[in-house]
Design goal:
The protein is an alpha+beta fold. The strands form 5 sheets. An 8-stranded mixed β-sheet has the order 5-4-3-6-2-1-7-8. Strands 9, 10, 11, 12, 13 and 14 form a 6-stranded mixed β-sheet that branches. Strand 10 (226-227) and strand 11 (232-238) form a beta hairpin. It binds adenosine-5'-diphosphate and magnesium ion (MG). Magnesium ion is lined by residues 31, 34-35, 95, 100.
Length: 617
């Protein structure tokens, strides 16, 4: 048989290897920013076009390179940062693999301009798909500028795989923020499509956080500091009452390098235990310094995962440091919110949330400010103000099978009611139960109907929003006193990109100056007290969820809005709310599917229940 094994040509090998380092424009951003920092830069500029798909450029005032080094820098395994294997255990630099520039040059059009302190003239090099296309001597300031154009221009399959410019922009921004947070002592500027996104002067950490995320951060941060033999911890955590409904700003840095660590994240969450509303996430900016030889950053090609020698001690130290800070700043009176209700309820009734006396709800309740912890966690379903509470199925009649048989609970089957009638209130008449704080259970002719409360509410909100859209002038509640909301510049950038959709749904803005947005009107569905948190969540969800399958930007924002506003699993609903929700759901055009195409309800036919009962008999 003929020999079939052959060595891959260099450019193919490089392209394959490049896939490890460069997944998207943000990966290029990370590598170039890190190189600039390794070169000792004090000022770094990042210029990006179309989310980095058209251009990523980094300009620094660092050491620069000699003409010979400039040529070598694009060779695979060319690095000035380590020379022997032991160096790997004492890394002081971000880079060490000598792969980034080689990988980037294999899959993009690159132009490098650089000059070191000794040389009078700098060097300009053009490279595309691995081949040097020209070198010239140029007049240029000391430092380095690298332009990376048309990423994956020679690998159409990869290029097509990139997401929209907006999504890529979000990733680029994330990367930029991480590097900028790790180095408050370096000045940064970021420009996207000619507009300035960030301008960050040299500052201390707290100022850097403010510059990146807006002034409002200032009052929210609590310092964390701890020093032990194996780790020094610094940075800030956000006060629990500012925890967001979605994972917002959560950052770990180890030896000035951003890392992901579910394990350390868990330690922080453990410190916050008992202080957070359900489904909310605290922000944190935590900096760990450990001896370089006690970590291994080598296990992931893009180096965001780290292996620690003393993982368990780190966990304990971090948790207690954060706990200590929260306590010291009087944030952690130990309130026992997490008491399990099931423990106190007779077994037979443990799932009968519906029978609890109706709790009306203060959604703004701040458990850390006042003294009425009992009402935490309760939520209620609010029907749109335009709709009444009355049942609306009569006449609409979408599917007779789904009509509740009647609304009278069979009280005669209850031997000894747990609650007297007064306490049970309206639920008795509705025949609705809430199950596991997630579902509403009701009787229909052929058996039982189980409704997912979150999905049902999403559907109701979605149809109300769409109805609103079809009007020429979307219904909007004008605010008597406009709300001033502070956002970070990057957040303003995102808000602006969905401005039209927001206006279509009933948000009204007057001019936004700097990082403050003046809100003058809101969609009828959004309570004024929740405007800020809803916008917060819209921003953080906006680029995390892919828009595939949406009709338009408005449709997408409408869905995100539903996601933000809908009652969440775990929220007890009072009987009136349950009834209102069920009524509104069956008044919808499509009561079966959530806006995200998930089924909203299932029937449990009587026959099947009977079969189960008789299975052993
Ligand atoms: P690594 O950073 O792992 O060494 P890279 O491929 O990123 O590998 O860079 C190769 C080499 O090019 C670096 O070791 C450094 O000597 C040089 N280099 C890259 N970027 C810069 C820069 N902005 N300023 C000065 N030197 C640079
Ligand atoms: Mg590098």
């Amino acid at each position: 048989m003929a020999n079939r094994i052959q060595l891959l040509p260099d450019h193919v090998a490089n392209q394959i290897a490049a896939g490890e380092v460069v997944q998207r424009p943000a990966s290029v951003v990370k590598e170039l920013l890190e190189n600039a920092i390794d070169a000792g830069a004090m000022r770094i500029e990042l210029l990006v076009k179309d989310g980095g798909k058209a251009l990523v450029q980094v300009v620094d005032d660092g050491s620069g390179m000699s003409p010979a080094d400039a040529g070598l820098s694009f060779r695979r395994h060319a690095t000035s940062k380590i020379s022997k294997a032991e160096d790997l255990f004492h890394l002081q630099t971000k880079g060490f693999r000598g792969e980034a520039l080689a990988s980037i040059a294999a899959i993009a059009q690159v132009e490098l301009t650089t000059r070191d302190a000794e040389a009078e003239l700098g060097t300009r090099l053009r490279i595309a798909g691995d081949t040097v296309q020209g070198t010239e001597a140029v007049v240029t300031p000391q430092g380095t500028s690298i332009q990376v154009k048309n990423l994956f221009f020679n690998i159409p399959a990869r290029r097509n795989f990139l997401k929209s410019a907006q999504v890529e922009f979000r990733h680029v921004l994330d990367e930029f923020q991480r590097v900028a947070l790790a180095h408050p002592g370096i000045a940064f500027r970021m420009v996207h499509n000619e507009s300035e996104v960030h301008h960050l002067p040299v500052s201390n950490l707290k100022q850097r956080i403010d510059h990146l995320f807006g002034n409002r951060m200032n009052a929210r941060l609590v310092p964390v500091a701890e020093e032990t033999q194996i780790v020094a911890i610094g940075g800030f955590v956000c006060k629990p009452e500012f925890a967001r409904k979605s994972r917002g700003e959560q950052f770990f840095f180890v030896n000035d390098r951003f890392i992901r660590s579910p394990y350390l994240h868990h330690a922080v969450m453990a410190a916050f235990e008992g202080l957070l509303r359900s489904e909310s996430y605290p922000g944190y900016f935590l900096y760990l310094q450990v001896p370089p030889e006690s970590i291994d950053i080598n296990i992931h090609p893009t180096k965001t995962e780290v292996k620690f020698e003393n993982e368990q001690s780190l966990y304990a130290i971090l948790r207690s440091a954060v706990k200590h800070s929260l306590g010291q700043f009087n944030i952690a009176p130990v309130l026992d919110f997490e008491q399990d209700q099931n423990l106190e309820t007779p077994y037979d009734y443990k799932d009968r949330e519906a029978m609890l006396p109706g709790v009306s709800v203060d959604r703004n309740f701040n458990p850390f400010a006042g003294e009425k912890p009992a009402s935490r966690n309760t939520g209620s379903y609010r029907p749109a103000p335009t709709r009444g509470w009355e049942a609306r199925y009569e006449g609409l009649d979408p599917d007779p099978e789904l009509q509740p048989a009647d609304w009278v609970i069979e009280s005669e089957t209850r031997q000894e009611p747990l609650f007297d009638e007064g306490a049970a209130g309206t639920p008795g008449q509705a025949g609705l139960f809430q199950l596991g704080r997630k579902y509403i259970l009701t009787r229909i002719k052929s058996g039982l109907l189980l409704i997912d409360q979150q999905r049902a509410h999403q559907r109701v909100l979605y149809e109300q929003l769409l109805q609103n859209l079809s009007r020429r002038e979307p219904a909007s509640q004008a605010l008597l006193f406009p709300l001033q909301l502070a956002f970070g510049r990057a957040e303003m950038h995102i808000l602006r990109s969905m401005e039209e959709a927001l206006a279509g749904l009933g948000f009204r803005f007057s001019d936004a100056a700097g990082d403050t947005l003046e809100l003058t009107g809101l969609p009828v569905l959004v309570p004024e007290s929740e405007a800020a948190s809803v916008l917060d969540q819209l921003i953080s969800d906006w680029q995390r969820h892919d828009g595939a399958g949406d009709f338009s930007q408005v449709d997408r924002v409408a869905k995100e809005l539903c996601r933000a506003l809908a009652v969440k699993p775990g929220t007890p609903l009072d009987p009136e709310s349950q009834l209102g929700l069920v009524n509104d759901l069956f008044g919808c055009k499509e009561p079966a599917m959530s806006p995200f195409n998930k089924p909203i309800h299932v029937t449990l036919p009587l026959e099947e229940l009977e079969k189960k009962l008789n299975f052993h008999g």
